[in-house]
Amino acid sequence: MRVLHFTPMYAPAWRYGGVVRSTTLLCETLVKLGHHVTVATTTAGTDHERSGTTVQLERNGVGVIYVPFIRTPLGVDAPVLNDILDCALRKHDVLHLTAVWQPTGRRAHAAATRRKKPYIVSPRGALSPFSFSHGSWKKIPYWSLVERRIASDASMLHSTSPLEEQELCRLLPCQSVATVPNAVDAALWSFSPSGRQAWRSRHRIAADEFVVMHVGRVEPKKNVEFLVEAMRIAADKCRLTLAIVGSALKPRHEAQLASRMRGFPCRVVRVADTPDAGELAAAYSAADVLAMPSRHENFGNVLLEALLCETPVLASTNVGAAFLAHDLPGTSILPLDVIAWGQALTRLQDQAGHTETRGRVPVAIRSLLAARFSPRATAAGIAGLYEKVLRDN
Questions:
Q1: How many other C-beta atoms are found inside a 10 Å radius of the C-beta of residue 357?
Q2: For residue 316, what are the β-bridge partners?
Q3: Do 157 and 168 touch, CB atoms closer than 8 A?
Q4: Which residue from 127, 345, 369, 377 has the fewest beta carbons nearer than 10 Å?
């Protein structure tokens, strides 16, 4: 099968979050399964960002076309995509579109319409009620004028969790929706005692400090401010350190968080970049719990990554992946009640004790996670969706 995947940001634009990692892993695994995959994307977040030229290369078996882009009030756009997508679609069977709320999405939709090619849309949480509630002044009219037609004309919508599937079915009750979860490469994530020690030493964290870690961009939906308030409650009974790992795409979010932390009784470690997998695995190993108080996550790959590193996870009921791993030891799911979260953090510290291994997730669950969310299983599931829309087209 010949697949053209369009997404505004692609590897190595890691600073744009989990969607880039998930899309990259999917495309590379599809190639390993024998499919021909081409990605059309922009140079945003790459070394070619300022080149102003189109770059074509092969990355881990995937042909990638990086095109120059412009930033608009509505997001990233790339006028040169019109010709590139039109030409590329002649050679491919199906289009996979991951570009909601981006002007580039309408260019991909137009190309698919002209070439009469079936396409699948992966909203990746962008069509959730939470998403509509932020920037609604522009999203609601843009939905009516542009995005609704793109989603409605798609052969299928791809959701990554039951939570997202329910949201999409409510939004577009007549559209076909299929759920295939994100993948996680278990080979990249494992507990490392030496990595734990080195990461803690580098950030001057004592062995007896209980580290609550947040991994992800600092933005409103991640709800780090809630975690700060929950830790204020827990700090009355235990010694906690908050480690925040991830970039802030908008400086005002970082400034707002700093303001909320005035008088914060816990030590704060801030790593304001997006580390590679090896460094991030060391960070997970250094943490005693990964906290995900998100207002919304269509999936949340970091939950699985942390569990594979034997790090317990405390997640809100708004995290899609939490319901796919709720039966596994080390996963706690709570509504966004600050007192309940404060009590949970206290309980987790009591369970952890003062050693490096007490309180960690049993290593036996690695095989369960590896099987349930393997890249090959996810890629095979997505390939099945392609085959279905091609049969139905």
A1: 12
A2: 334
A3: yes
A4: 377
Task: Write out the two tokens for 35.
Answer: 């499919």
The string of pLDDT tens digits covering residues 272-284 is 877 788 999 999 9
* CATH number of the domain to which 265 belongs: 3.40.50.2000
Question: CB count, 10 Å around CB of 249?
Answer: 13
247: phi then psi, degrees, rounded to nearest 5: -85, 160
What length is written for the chain?
Answer: 393
Residue 297 one-letter amino acid:
E
Are 135 and 237 found together in one domain?
no
Residue 58's SS3 state is: strand
pLDDT tens per residue, range 63-113: 999 999 999 888 899 999 999 999 999 999 999 999 999 999 999 999 999
For 277, the token pair is: 């997998």
Residue 115 corresponds to which amino acid? R
> What is the helix (H) or strand (E) element at residue 345, kind and residue range?
helix 338-352
Average of per-residue pLDDT across 250-273? 85
Can you give the pTM of this predicted structure? 0.89
**Burial (CB count within 10 angstroms: exposed 0-12, middle 13-18, buried 19+), residue 169:** middle
- Return the closest-CA partner of residue 297 out of 130, 100, 96: 130
Domain that holds residue 129: 2-179
Q: Is the CB of residue 6 less than 8 Å from the CB of residue 96?
A: yes
Mean per-residue pLDDT for 118-142? 94
Distances (CA, A) of 361 to 309, 345, 379: 8, 16, 27
Q: What is the largest CA-CA distance in the chain?
A: 64
At residue 125, φ and ψ (nearest 5 deg) are: 85, -5
Determine the number of helices (DSSP H) and then strands (DSSP E) in the chain: 16, 16
SS3 of residue 205 by DSSP: coil
> Residue 79 region, left (φ>0) first, then alpha (ψ -120 to 50), else beta?
alpha
Higher pLDDT, 260 or 341: 341
Residues 213 and 359 in one domain: yes
Backbone angles phi, psi at 353, to 5 degrees: 70, -145
Residues 253, 172, single domain; the answer is no
Give the whole-angstrom CA distance, residue 36 versus residue 85.
16
